Amino acid sequence: WVRGVHQTPPALIRSLGDKVQLVCTHGQTDYRVMLWYQQPPGQTEIKLIGYLNYYEVKMEKPYEQHFSIHGDLSKNDAKNVSLIFSLTGDEDSAVYYCAASLRGLCSFTEAYFGAGTKLTVLVKVLKPSVSECRNRKDNKQYNKTLVCVASDFYPDHVSVFWQIDGGNVTRGVATDSSARRDGKYYRITSRLMVPLTQWYTPEKNFSCTVSFFNGNKTTYSSNWVRGIEERYLRITHNAKLSYAVLIVKSSFFGVFVVVLLLCKLKVGPPSYCVQAT
């Protein structure tokens, strides 16, 4: 991929609204076309953002509003071209590649790529409103969250999916928007939220599968966990029931003692005293 084409920075973490500048350089003085591409997370294809031919810029329509390319390739010196854009959403999280070519797109000449820049956009998470909290409290449901973590892989071409009893599920699934860099390698986390009625079903099978593309082929790795018996729920329910009965008995005994004392202290005919038995 790389033949004297250099990109900076290699990785970048920014927030929504930030302006980003990626720089691409090379020393091939006769390569007067520089192209920029975007590779979204989990995809193998790359999308053309635009290119600079000598000093003329051509942008693809989806990128015209927020992206711009700056530079001058008409001179006989080292080439330096920048891609500048503002972050408008988490869809800007991607790997960005620049490429140097001798001629334009329609000339069928080779293009030499840089190593890429991994951009991660941090999305602000808002607190739930008061009405949301009230609705969640009123419609309270008990769930179990299963967590699947894949780590120590490179590059970051992965996707994760969940299955229950062999059938794909998407409801209750929350997966990282992209793999996170962890030293030399990457890791990704996915979560599945299921009702307790499913989790406390011993024959239920919950599996997590990670597909990984290493540049030549796709491999799959899976792990699974079974539901457990509802014994814990029964024990908890019985404990609560026993506690409630104990409170009722204690309250009844307390009323009985109070009535008995009143009967002993009251002055008058015994017909006014009612004793519980």
From TrEMBL:
<feature type="transmembrane region" description="Helical">
    <location>
        <begin position="241"/>
        <end position="262"/>
    </location>
</feature>
<dbReference type="GO" id="GO:0005886">
    <property type="term" value="C:plasma membrane"/>
</dbReference>
<dbReference type="InterPro" id="IPR003597">
    <property type="entry name" value="Ig_C1-set"/>
</dbReference>
<keyword id="KW-0391">Immunity</keyword>
<keyword id="KW-0472">Membrane</keyword>
<dbReference type="InterPro" id="IPR013106">
    <property type="entry name" value="Ig_V-set"/>
</dbReference>
<dbReference type="GO" id="GO:0002376">
    <property type="term" value="P:immune system process"/>
</dbReference>
<dbReference type="GO" id="GO:0007166">
    <property type="term" value="P:cell surface receptor signaling pathway"/>
</dbReference>
<dbReference type="InterPro" id="IPR050413">
    <property type="entry name" value="TCR_beta_variable"/>
</dbReference>
<feature type="domain" description="Ig-like">
    <location>
        <begin position="128"/>
        <end position="226"/>
    </location>
</feature>
<keyword id="KW-1133">Transmembrane helix</keyword>
<protein>
    <recommendedName>
        <fullName>Ig-like domain-containing protein</fullName>
    </recommendedName>
</protein>
<keyword id="KW-0812">Transmembrane</keyword>
<dbReference type="InterPro" id="IPR007110">
    <property type="entry name" value="Ig-like_dom"/>
</dbReference>
<dbReference type="InterPro" id="IPR003599">
    <property type="entry name" value="Ig_sub"/>
</dbReference>
<keyword id="KW-0732">Signal</keyword>
<dbReference type="Pfam" id="PF07686">
    <property type="entry name" value="V-set"/>
</dbReference>
<dbReference type="Pfam" id="PF07654">
    <property type="entry name" value="C1-set"/>
</dbReference>
<dbReference type="InterPro" id="IPR013783">
    <property type="entry name" value="Ig-like_fold"/>
</dbReference>
<dbReference type="InterPro" id="IPR036179">
    <property type="entry name" value="Ig-like_dom_sf"/>
</dbReference>
